Fold:
Amino acid sequence: MSTATLDRTLVERLVRDALTQKLGTNGHANGKAATPKLVVNISARHCHVTQEDLERLFGKGHQLKPHKALYQDGFFAAEEMVTIIGPRHRMIPNLRILGPCRDHSQVELAFTDAISLGLEIPVRKSGDHRDSPGCYLLGPAGMIELQRGVIRHERHVHMGPADAAHFGVKDGDRLNLRVASTCSMVLEDLLCRLSPSAKLEVHLDTDEGNACDLPHATKVELFR
Ligand SMILES: [Zn+2]
Structure:
């Protein structure tokens, strides 16, 4: 048998295909779009604050210091943390602020957190504060009272236009998530949040992530 000679074009294609598979990119192998790479993360309790509220908590002119970059470009967990205080002085310390600052302050808790604070909170998408309770936030320079804005953020999936096309959805539509693990489950009706620069990422809260044992998941899959 003669020694096969690999021509340059073939080698390039093999390398490209191997990289496409490994990176899970949206590259086209054999003329067929690859499944977008899905990341599922647990979004632990946290808050968002306005620049004005940040200064009341941490002092005049204070700027958030990035502690850790989040998966979505431009967003970060800040070094700054506050204590959240509910009715009857129940509190949770070390509530992380996520940056950058927003035009409304908002606290996102899991139901377990809310129950321990003595708060009854609604499931809402970001910025929808209808019928939500308030709380006190305490920082090193002061305390503020939020009149409303403590919510359980509803489970959702961030995606860009190519991901939306792949799943055949638009902003505001719903997808289901199947998690295979020691506690396999299907989470229904994740809100699709489409934005031009978003990467495909599901956000669950700690209650949901623990219930399906997400840290030990062997497979995650989005479907209609
Ligand atoms: Zn999110």
